[in-house]
Specification:
Layout: E1 2-5, E2 12-15, H1 20-42, H2 44-66, H3 70-79, H4 84-111
Antiparallel strand pairs: 1-2
Helix pairs in contact: 1-4, 2-4
């Protein structure tokens, strides 16, 4: 841990060694992060199925919410599947990149005193 010493005009940095408990916490945090990354890699099909379901639900609700005209609403519902493959690729990359850290931080916050 770095601590600034502001007693004199010169700013000096004092390095304090991390306690064993904090080191263990950081190691466990990294382990959880790696395990979640590994889980997402191994269960890619499951993640894709979740993304697919969320796309189906979200696209219908978004069209119903934003488009009041019945003919236009039906047309958009018919063509909403066209961008789905591109969405799935982008969403999968985003999930693999951002989810492990977000889940790890959330879990860590739940067990942290």
């Amino acid at each position: 841990m770095l601590v600034k010493n502001n007693q004199d005009r010169k700013t000096s940095i004092i390095v304090q060694p991390l306690t064993q408990e904090k080191q263990r916490d950081e190691e466990n945090f990294r382990d959880i992060l790696l395990l979640l990354q590994n889980l997402l890699e191994r269960e890619e099909k499951t993640v894709l199925m979740i993304i697919d379901s969320l796309y189906e639900i979200g696209s219908v609700h978004l069209i119903n919410k934003k488009i009041a005209s019945k003919p236009l609403n039906d047309l958009l519902k018919a063509i909403r599947r066209w961008p789905k493959p591109v969405f799935k690729i982008i969403a999968l990359r985003w999930v693999k990149k951002n989810s492990p850290l977000a889940i790890t931080k959330w879990l860590y916050a739940k067990v942290k005193p």
